[in-house]
Amino acid sequence: xxxxxxxxxxxxxxxILDLLEVTLAAKGFxxxxxxxxxxxxxxxxxxxxxxxxxxxxxxxxxxxxxxRELRADARTKVLPIIMLTAKVEEADKVQGLEVGAxxxxxxxxxxxxxxxxxxxxxxxxxxxxxxxxxxxxxxxLNAGRREARADGNLIEIGSTEFRLxxxxxxxxxxxxxxxxxxxxxxGDHRFVEERTVDVHVLRLRKALQPYGAExxxxxxxxxxxxxxxxxA
Length: 232
Description:
single chain, 232 residues, alpha/beta, four-stranded antiparallel beta sheet, 8 helices
C-alpha cells in the first residue's frame, strides 16, 4: 500500500486504538485517530482521509449514525468505511452495510486480517493507490514501492506528480477534466485551485522528459488531460 494513503481510526478503546495505529503505521499508512464522532468530524473537515475505520459503539453519536451522516454528505459520500464492532449477528452486519459501510470486521480481530481488508478496499476504490504494478507504453509504476520507471530507468518524481501519474496510468487513454483530477488525485480540493493541476502536469512532463515520455501526457484542449501514446 502506498505510504501516502491516510487512515482515520475512530475508536474509543485506547488499547485497540494503539494496536490499530501501530499495525497500520508499520505498513506505511499515515494514521490519524479520533475517539468519538465529534473529533472524527473535525478531523475530516480539516483533511479528507483515504479510508475510515469506524467503531460501531462510540460515546455520544454511534458509529452507525456517523456512517449514515458521512454517506449523506456529498464530500464524504464515497469515502471508504470499514465498520469495527463486537456485534456478530447477521442482522447487525446487514444494518452496518445498509447505512453505507464498505466492509465489516468483528472483534476480536486479527490485525493482519484488518490490514488485508484495508488493502482490498483501497484496491477496489482506488486501484492506482494500491500495492500493484501499472504499465503503459514505456512506463512502469509500483505504488507500493513508490517507484516509477521509463524504459527501466528510475524517474525522479514528486509525491503529487507520482499520484497524478499513477491515476492516469490506471485509466489510460481516458480524458479527465481538471475538476475530475482534483477529485481523484488530490481527494479533497476545497482549497486547491484548478490551475494547480496545470502546474503539476508541467512538473510531471518535466520529470518524464529525459526519457522521451513527456509526450504521453497529453492536453485535450478545452477538456483536460489524458495519458495516451501519440496518435492514440
